[in-house]
Amino acid sequence: xxxxxxxxxxxxxxxxxxxYPEATGAFSNILSDVAFAAKMIAKExxxxxxxxxxxxTGEVNVQxxxxxxLDEYAHEVIFKALDHTGHLCGMxxxxxxxxxxxxxxxxxxxxxxxxxxxxxxxxxxxxVSVGTIFSVHRKxxxxxRGCAEDCLQPGYxxxxxxxxxxxxxxxxxxxxxxxxxxFTLEPSIGEFLLSHPDIRIPSPGQRIFSANExxxxxxxxxxxxxxxxxxxxxxxxxxxFSARYIGSLVADFHRNLLYGGFFMYPAxxxxxxxxxxxxxxxxxxxxxxxxxxxxxSTGFTRINEIEPTSLHQRTPLYIGSAEYVELAEQFLAQxx
Length: 336
Ligand code: AHG
Ligand code: MN
Ligand code: MN
Ligand code: MN
Hints:
14 strands; binds 2,5-anhydro-1,6-di-O-phosphono-D-glucitol; binds manganese (II) ion; 7-stranded mixed sheet; 5-stranded mixed sheet
Protein backbone atom coordinates (compact mmCIF):
# COMPACT_ATOMS: atom_id res chain seq x y z
CA UNK A 1 0.00 0.00 0.00
CA UNK A 2 1.59 3.30 -1.00
CA UNK A 3 1.07 5.75 1.85
CA UNK A 4 0.41 9.35 0.83
CA UNK A 5 3.38 11.43 2.01
CA UNK A 6 2.41 13.13 5.23
CA UNK A 7 4.09 16.49 5.61
CA UNK A 8 4.17 17.85 9.15
CA UNK A 9 4.62 21.55 9.71
CA UNK A 10 8.05 20.86 11.21
CA UNK A 11 9.17 19.10 8.00
CA UNK A 12 7.66 21.87 5.85
CA UNK A 13 9.45 24.60 7.83
CA UNK A 14 12.81 22.82 7.68
CA UNK A 15 12.48 22.27 3.93
CA UNK A 16 11.50 25.94 3.49
CA UNK A 17 14.52 27.08 5.50
CA UNK A 18 16.91 25.06 3.31
CA UNK A 19 16.28 27.77 0.69
CA TYR A 20 18.26 30.15 2.91
CA PRO A 21 21.84 28.75 3.03
CA GLU A 22 22.75 31.15 5.82
CA ALA A 23 19.78 29.99 7.91
CA THR A 24 20.76 28.71 11.31
CA GLY A 25 17.61 26.80 12.16
CA ALA A 26 16.57 29.43 14.69
CA PHE A 27 13.83 30.56 12.38
CA SER A 28 12.48 27.02 12.00
CA ASN A 29 12.53 26.61 15.74
CA ILE A 30 10.48 29.78 16.28
CA LEU A 31 7.76 28.60 13.90
CA SER A 32 7.76 25.15 15.48
CA ASP A 33 7.52 26.73 18.93
CA VAL A 34 4.51 28.78 17.78
CA ALA A 35 2.92 25.60 16.42
CA PHE A 36 3.44 23.94 19.81
CA ALA A 37 1.78 26.90 21.58
CA ALA A 38 -1.12 26.66 19.12
CA LYS A 39 -1.69 23.03 20.09
CA MET A 40 -1.75 23.97 23.77
CA ILE A 41 -4.23 26.82 23.16
CA ALA A 42 -6.39 24.62 20.91
CA LYS A 43 -6.69 22.07 23.72
CA GLU A 44 -8.10 24.71 26.09
CA UNK A 45 -10.29 26.40 23.47
CA UNK A 46 -11.83 22.99 22.64
CA UNK A 47 -12.81 22.43 26.26
CA UNK A 48 -13.36 26.08 27.27
CA UNK A 49 -16.82 25.31 28.62
CA UNK A 50 -15.43 22.60 30.89
CA UNK A 51 -12.36 24.26 32.28
CA UNK A 52 -12.33 27.27 34.54
CA UNK A 53 -11.20 29.19 31.49
CA UNK A 54 -14.31 31.12 30.57
CA UNK A 55 -15.24 34.57 31.70
CA UNK A 56 -13.18 37.54 32.71
CA THR A 57 -10.06 37.95 34.76
CA GLY A 58 -11.37 41.22 36.16
CA GLU A 59 -8.47 43.16 34.58
CA VAL A 60 -8.64 45.70 31.78
CA ASN A 61 -5.87 45.62 29.14
CA VAL A 62 -4.05 48.47 27.44
CA GLN A 63 -6.78 48.40 24.78
CA UNK A 64 -9.35 49.26 27.45
CA UNK A 65 -10.90 45.79 26.98
CA UNK A 66 -12.02 43.47 29.76
CA UNK A 67 -9.46 40.67 29.66
CA UNK A 68 -10.84 37.17 29.17
CA UNK A 69 -9.24 34.29 31.02
CA LEU A 70 -8.50 32.73 27.64
CA ASP A 71 -6.78 35.93 26.43
CA GLU A 72 -4.46 35.69 29.41
CA TYR A 73 -4.00 31.92 29.14
CA ALA A 74 -3.14 32.13 25.43
CA HIS A 75 -0.69 34.96 26.13
CA GLU A 76 1.08 32.96 28.84
CA VAL A 77 1.30 29.83 26.66
CA ILE A 78 2.90 31.72 23.76
CA PHE A 79 5.25 33.69 26.00
CA LYS A 80 6.46 30.53 27.80
CA ALA A 81 6.86 28.61 24.53
CA LEU A 82 9.23 31.30 23.23
CA ASP A 83 10.92 33.07 26.19
CA HIS A 84 13.67 30.51 26.93
CA THR A 85 14.68 29.45 23.40
CA GLY A 86 17.53 31.91 22.89
CA HIS A 87 16.13 32.83 19.47
CA LEU A 88 14.29 36.03 20.45
CA CYS A 89 15.35 39.54 21.48
CA GLY A 90 11.87 40.25 22.77
CA MET A 91 8.15 40.08 22.15
CA UNK A 92 5.04 42.27 21.94
CA UNK A 93 1.52 41.12 22.78
CA UNK A 94 -1.93 42.63 22.59
CA UNK A 95 -2.27 41.85 26.30
CA UNK A 96 0.90 43.63 27.48
CA UNK A 97 1.31 47.41 27.34
CA UNK A 98 5.06 47.57 26.82
CA UNK A 99 7.79 45.72 24.92
CA UNK A 100 8.39 42.32 26.58
CA UNK A 101 12.12 41.68 27.12
CA UNK A 102 13.53 38.17 27.36
CA UNK A 103 14.02 37.29 31.08
CA UNK A 104 17.64 37.91 32.13
CA UNK A 105 18.19 34.23 32.96
CA UNK A 106 17.74 33.32 29.30
CA UNK A 107 19.98 34.12 26.28
CA UNK A 108 18.62 36.34 23.51
CA UNK A 109 18.59 35.92 19.75
CA UNK A 110 18.08 37.83 16.54
CA UNK A 111 14.29 37.71 16.05
CA UNK A 112 11.26 39.25 17.72
CA UNK A 113 7.70 37.92 17.71
CA UNK A 114 4.57 40.05 17.99
CA UNK A 115 1.25 38.38 18.62
CA UNK A 116 -2.44 38.63 19.26
CA UNK A 117 -2.76 35.63 21.56
CA UNK A 118 -6.50 35.23 21.21
CA UNK A 119 -8.36 37.04 18.44
CA UNK A 120 -12.13 37.36 18.60
CA UNK A 121 -12.21 36.59 22.31
CA UNK A 122 -15.64 38.18 22.75
CA UNK A 123 -16.90 35.13 20.82
CA UNK A 124 -15.42 32.42 22.99
CA UNK A 125 -18.43 32.01 25.31
CA UNK A 126 -20.64 31.56 22.24
CA UNK A 127 -18.40 28.78 20.88
CA VAL A 128 -17.70 30.83 17.74
CA SER A 129 -14.34 30.47 15.97
CA VAL A 130 -11.43 32.42 17.47
CA GLY A 131 -7.79 32.68 16.48
CA THR A 132 -4.18 33.61 17.21
CA ILE A 133 -2.10 35.91 14.98
CA PHE A 134 1.73 36.21 14.92
CA SER A 135 4.39 38.24 13.16
CA VAL A 136 8.18 37.68 13.07
CA HIS A 137 10.80 40.43 12.53
CA ARG A 138 14.61 40.42 12.60
CA LYS A 139 16.33 42.34 15.41
CA UNK A 140 17.43 45.74 14.09
CA UNK A 141 18.37 47.69 17.21
CA UNK A 142 21.89 47.87 18.60
CA UNK A 143 20.41 47.36 22.07
CA UNK A 144 22.32 44.50 23.68
CA ARG A 145 19.30 42.29 24.38
CA GLY A 146 16.50 43.94 22.36
CA CYS A 147 14.03 46.79 22.73
CA ALA A 148 10.75 48.19 21.36
CA GLU A 149 12.55 49.46 18.26
CA ASP A 150 12.92 45.85 17.16
CA CYS A 151 9.10 45.56 17.13
CA LEU A 152 8.34 48.92 15.52
CA GLN A 153 9.03 47.86 11.93
CA PRO A 154 6.86 48.24 8.80
CA GLY A 155 5.02 45.16 7.60
CA TYR A 156 7.11 44.72 4.46
CA UNK A 157 10.07 43.87 6.72
CA UNK A 158 8.32 40.89 8.33
CA UNK A 159 10.20 37.64 7.69
CA UNK A 160 7.20 35.48 8.60
CA UNK A 161 3.56 35.87 9.52
CA UNK A 162 0.76 33.50 10.34
CA UNK A 163 -2.40 32.73 12.20
CA UNK A 164 -4.21 29.86 13.84
CA UNK A 165 -7.98 29.52 13.47
CA UNK A 166 -9.68 27.43 16.16
CA UNK A 167 -12.72 26.50 14.13
CA UNK A 168 -14.46 23.27 13.13
CA UNK A 169 -10.86 22.13 12.77
CA UNK A 170 -7.71 23.83 14.04
CA UNK A 171 -5.63 25.23 11.19
CA UNK A 172 -2.30 27.03 11.18
CA UNK A 173 -1.58 29.17 8.09
CA UNK A 174 1.82 30.82 7.58
CA UNK A 175 4.10 32.46 5.07
CA UNK A 176 7.86 33.10 5.09
CA UNK A 177 7.64 35.06 1.85
CA UNK A 178 7.44 31.99 -0.38
CA UNK A 179 3.71 31.49 -0.67
CA UNK A 180 1.05 30.71 1.91
CA UNK A 181 0.65 27.22 3.36
CA UNK A 182 -2.10 25.76 5.55
CA PHE A 183 -1.83 22.93 8.06
CA THR A 184 -4.67 21.13 9.81
CA LEU A 185 -4.21 19.72 13.31
CA GLU A 186 -4.70 15.96 13.44
CA PRO A 187 -5.69 15.69 17.12
CA SER A 188 -5.15 11.92 17.28
CA ILE A 189 -1.41 12.39 16.74
CA GLY A 190 -1.11 16.05 17.82
CA GLU A 191 0.52 17.11 14.58
CA PHE A 192 -0.22 19.94 12.12
CA LEU A 193 -0.29 18.25 8.70
CA LEU A 194 -0.02 20.08 5.36
CA SER A 195 -3.58 20.31 4.02
CA HIS A 196 -3.55 23.54 1.93
CA PRO A 197 -0.23 23.97 0.06
CA ASP A 198 0.32 27.24 -1.86
CA ILE A 199 -2.98 28.94 -1.01
CA ARG A 200 -4.00 31.56 -3.58
CA ILE A 201 -7.00 33.86 -3.12
CA PRO A 202 -9.38 32.96 -5.99
CA SER A 203 -9.74 35.71 -8.57
CA PRO A 204 -12.39 36.84 -9.15
CA GLY A 205 -13.21 36.09 -5.59
CA GLN A 206 -16.66 35.22 -4.34
CA ARG A 207 -18.73 38.38 -3.98
CA ILE A 208 -18.68 38.45 -0.16
CA PHE A 209 -17.97 41.43 2.08
CA SER A 210 -17.47 41.58 5.85
CA ALA A 211 -18.14 44.74 7.87
CA ASN A 212 -19.85 45.61 11.13
CA GLU A 213 -22.77 47.58 9.69
CA UNK A 214 -23.77 48.54 13.20
CA UNK A 215 -21.22 51.33 12.69
CA UNK A 216 -22.91 52.63 9.49
CA UNK A 217 -24.05 55.89 11.16
CA UNK A 218 -20.42 56.71 12.05
CA UNK A 219 -18.97 55.92 8.61
CA UNK A 220 -17.70 58.46 6.09
CA UNK A 221 -19.68 59.28 2.97
CA UNK A 222 -17.31 57.19 0.85
CA UNK A 223 -17.61 54.17 3.15
CA UNK A 224 -21.40 54.38 3.15
CA UNK A 225 -21.46 54.73 -0.64
CA UNK A 226 -19.19 51.68 -0.94
CA UNK A 227 -21.43 49.44 1.17
CA UNK A 228 -24.59 50.78 -0.50
CA UNK A 229 -22.99 49.80 -3.82
CA UNK A 230 -21.95 46.34 -2.58
CA UNK A 231 -25.51 45.68 -1.39
CA UNK A 232 -27.04 46.96 -4.63
CA UNK A 233 -29.10 49.66 -2.92
CA UNK A 234 -27.57 52.40 -5.07
CA UNK A 235 -28.89 50.75 -8.22
CA UNK A 236 -25.45 50.54 -9.88
CA UNK A 237 -24.50 46.97 -8.98
CA UNK A 238 -26.09 44.22 -11.09
CA UNK A 239 -24.58 41.51 -8.87
CA UNK A 240 -24.91 42.50 -5.19
CA PHE A 241 -22.52 40.94 -2.66
CA SER A 242 -23.39 38.62 0.21
CA ALA A 243 -22.61 39.82 3.73
CA ARG A 244 -20.74 37.57 6.16
CA TYR A 245 -19.46 38.85 9.53
CA ILE A 246 -18.21 36.49 12.22
CA GLY A 247 -16.71 39.11 14.52
CA SER A 248 -13.40 37.24 14.72
CA LEU A 249 -10.91 38.83 12.31
CA VAL A 250 -9.01 35.57 11.81
CA ALA A 251 -12.15 33.61 10.91
CA ASP A 252 -13.45 36.30 8.54
CA PHE A 253 -10.02 36.58 6.91
CA HIS A 254 -9.57 32.81 6.59
CA ARG A 255 -12.83 32.65 4.60
CA ASN A 256 -11.57 35.41 2.29
CA LEU A 257 -8.27 33.58 1.79
CA LEU A 258 -10.00 30.39 0.66
CA TYR A 259 -13.12 31.75 -1.10
CA GLY A 260 -12.20 35.30 -2.05
CA GLY A 261 -14.18 38.34 -0.92
CA PHE A 262 -12.94 41.00 1.48
CA PHE A 263 -13.08 42.27 5.06
CA MET A 264 -13.36 45.88 6.19
CA TYR A 265 -12.87 47.54 9.54
CA PRO A 266 -13.04 51.20 8.49
CA ALA A 267 -12.10 54.34 10.35
CA UNK A 268 -15.21 56.06 11.67
CA UNK A 269 -16.21 59.21 13.57
CA UNK A 270 -15.74 57.38 16.90
CA UNK A 271 -12.51 55.57 15.96
CA UNK A 272 -10.55 57.73 13.49
CA UNK A 273 -7.91 54.98 13.12
CA UNK A 274 -10.36 52.11 13.14
CA UNK A 275 -10.26 49.36 15.78
CA UNK A 276 -7.73 46.78 14.61
CA UNK A 277 -4.08 46.90 15.67
CA UNK A 278 -1.39 47.30 13.04
CA UNK A 279 1.53 45.28 14.38
CA UNK A 280 -0.13 42.03 15.42
CA UNK A 281 -3.40 41.99 13.46
CA UNK A 282 -3.29 43.99 10.20
CA UNK A 283 0.39 43.64 9.21
CA UNK A 284 0.75 39.85 9.56
CA UNK A 285 -2.55 39.21 7.75
CA UNK A 286 -1.52 41.73 5.10
CA UNK A 287 1.69 39.75 4.43
CA UNK A 288 -0.38 36.60 4.03
CA UNK A 289 -2.97 38.30 1.81
CA UNK A 290 -0.27 39.72 -0.50
CA UNK A 291 1.61 36.42 -0.63
CA UNK A 292 -1.68 34.76 -1.71
CA UNK A 293 -2.25 37.34 -4.48
CA UNK A 294 -4.57 39.61 -2.49
CA UNK A 295 -4.28 43.15 -1.16
CA UNK A 296 -4.34 44.90 2.23
CA SER A 297 -4.95 48.62 2.52
CA THR A 298 -5.99 51.36 4.94
CA GLY A 299 -8.42 52.36 2.17
CA PHE A 300 -5.76 54.83 0.95
CA THR A 301 -2.33 53.24 1.43
CA ARG A 302 -0.75 49.79 1.57
CA ILE A 303 -0.89 48.43 5.13
CA ASN A 304 2.63 47.02 4.98
CA GLU A 305 4.24 50.38 4.18
CA ILE A 306 3.02 52.05 7.37
CA GLU A 307 5.97 53.06 9.59
CA PRO A 308 4.77 52.18 13.13
CA THR A 309 5.27 54.61 15.99
CA SER A 310 3.66 52.68 18.86
CA LEU A 311 3.11 49.00 19.70
CA HIS A 312 -0.68 49.14 19.86
CA GLN A 313 -1.46 51.68 17.18
CA ARG A 314 -4.64 51.05 15.25
CA THR A 315 -5.31 51.20 11.52
CA PRO A 316 -8.32 51.00 9.25
CA LEU A 317 -8.17 47.68 7.38
CA TYR A 318 -9.47 46.54 3.99
CA ILE A 319 -8.11 43.08 3.16
CA GLY A 320 -8.82 40.18 0.78
CA SER A 321 -9.38 39.89 -2.98
CA ALA A 322 -7.29 42.56 -4.70
CA GLU A 323 -10.09 43.57 -7.06
CA TYR A 324 -12.48 44.27 -4.16
CA VAL A 325 -9.94 46.15 -2.02
CA GLU A 326 -9.22 48.31 -5.07
CA LEU A 327 -12.97 48.93 -5.48
CA ALA A 328 -13.09 50.07 -1.86
CA GLU A 329 -10.17 52.46 -2.47
CA GLN A 330 -12.03 53.95 -5.44
CA PHE A 331 -15.08 54.73 -3.29
CA LEU A 332 -13.01 56.06 -0.39
CA ALA A 333 -11.12 58.40 -2.72
CA GLN A 334 -14.15 60.75 -2.46
CA UNK A 335 -13.33 61.19 1.25
CA UNK A 336 -9.74 62.23 0.57
P1 AHG B 1 -9.44 40.75 19.88
O1 AHG B 1 -10.42 39.72 20.36
O2 AHG B 1 -8.05 40.20 19.65
O3 AHG B 1 -9.42 41.98 20.78
O4 AHG B 1 -9.90 41.22 18.42
C1 AHG B 1 -11.24 41.50 18.19
C2 AHG B 1 -11.38 42.19 16.87
C3 AHG B 1 -11.40 41.26 15.66
O5 AHG B 1 -11.21 39.92 15.97
C4 AHG B 1 -12.78 41.46 15.06
O6 AHG B 1 -12.72 41.53 13.66
C5 AHG B 1 -13.23 42.78 15.64
O7 AHG B 1 -12.60 42.89 16.90
C6 AHG B 1 -14.72 42.82 15.82
O8 AHG B 1 -15.01 44.13 16.29
P2 AHG B 1 -16.54 44.59 16.43
O9 AHG B 1 -17.13 43.73 17.51
O10 AHG B 1 -16.44 46.05 16.80
O11 AHG B 1 -17.19 44.39 15.08
MN1 MN C 1 -8.70 41.98 22.71
MN1 MN D 1 -7.56 40.50 17.61
MN1 MN E 1 -6.82 39.41 21.08
